[in-house]
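Appendix B, record 7
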Amino acid sequence: MNQTLDLCGPARLDSLGGRPATAAVSDKAVARAYSVAFRMTGNEADAEAATQQALLRLGRQLDAGSLYQFTVRAVVDLRRTRPTDRDEPVSGDAPSGHRLSRLEAAIAALPPAYRDPFVLADVEGMSAAAVGELLGVSVSVVKDQLHRARMLLCAALRDGR
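Structure tokens (predicted):
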């Protein structure tokens, strides 16, 4: 996570009584939420915004088990409210020269319709049914998007992009 990111600081208060929205959420859960948001959005600013939005929703719901789902929904909502050019990956987010960096860059270059199910299913280990429920699509759509994402990743890694 970014060193300056303070998702648990006093400025992040919920609307119910001024308690920190993250009082019931561990730092590990916040870091995981930020991680999935970063992988889905491809840039730090949108990942921070989505994670903060998820924490605000969590503060209203007071259900610590829902942070992950709130984060994914916040990323999807963020994309709906932003111009489409924000969905383009930010170049330079991943350092070059390392296999993992190439893979991360290839994932970031995927269109959001393929990147989201790939990150949730193949990186985070969710089932196709759970991904479909979270993204609001059928299992067959998730499987199709996963197949296409994998094919695009194979081509990108083979071509050295």
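Remarks on this record: The mean pLDDT is 75. The two ends are 25 Å apart (CA to CA).
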